[in-house]
């Protein structure tokens, strides 16, 4: 009797856990984690706590990918685990280092009275996300049209699976291009340092969420939020199909640019549909990827203009 009861409980626990991940992962990462960021920043917590929170988010993301994967095959390494870890470490270190220089640039370039400092912190945080999202979307859009930019952006598109760390896998040069494009308008407006700290943390969380291999429920929010269900279309190796959905946080600017795309698919994406169609043998290891944009080569992206 006891043995039978225990056996029946196991599938129920598994179903409950999968349901929690499916319907709880998005609000936990999008609302819960960002609320925790806002709370820590407003209480002048050490940046160590923000780093710990990010590590918790990474652990939760990886755990959820095991419980409810979009594609089980994407949970297995494709010879890219060490490379992606190095990309994540280098790029996140650069992001947090930028915070140290932000007050200097803001002091030199900010327009007096440009930032609504009298707004509640949460509204300032949301405004910073929208402005950053516009700058990054435009830089991302341009990177698919100008070959010089594409050479550095191609590192990110070389992935053959989509999981949490993919969002942090960028060439440092392209990381810098997107950072400048997104933060320069904010610096000119006089972005406060505490809002900037929260924003950097939000970017890291969003990149995890956007590239996650978790089959979480999105529903109608797919037309507003730049989540994984929408972003997978962008990573198709056919440039004509992947020339869509450039937003980091939202799809707002994609709707205005006419680049938003979503369709219900009868089949799920596979590794065979991802990558760079014109360069199937693009380097996989970290150092060769850093060097590749500087090597003479034919234009990789047929949509690039020059």
Query: What is the CA-atom radius of gyration, in angstroms?
Result: 20 Å
Integer count of domains: 1
Regions with pLDDT < 50 over 5+ consecutive residues?
none
Beta percentage is: under 5%
Taking all residues together, what is the mean pLDDT? 90
Beta strands, count: 0
Most strands sheet? none
Could you state the order of secondary-structure elements as H and E? HHHHHHHHHHH
Calculate the terminal CA-CA distance, rounded to whole Å.
73 Å
Shape: globular
The helix-and-strand class reads mainly alpha
How does this structure look, described?
The chain is an all-alpha fold. The chain has one domain (2-294). It has eleven helices and no strands. It has helices spanning 2-42, 47-67, 81-109, 121-143, 147-157, 172-189, 193-211, 228-231, 239-242, 252-257, 286-291. Helix 3 (81-109) packs antiparallel against helix 7 (193-211). The longest helix is centred in the N-terminal third of the chain and has 41 residues, at 2-42. It is globular, with a radius of gyration of 20 Å. It starts with a helix and ends in a 15-residue tail after the last helix. The model has no long low-confidence stretch (mean pLDDT 90).
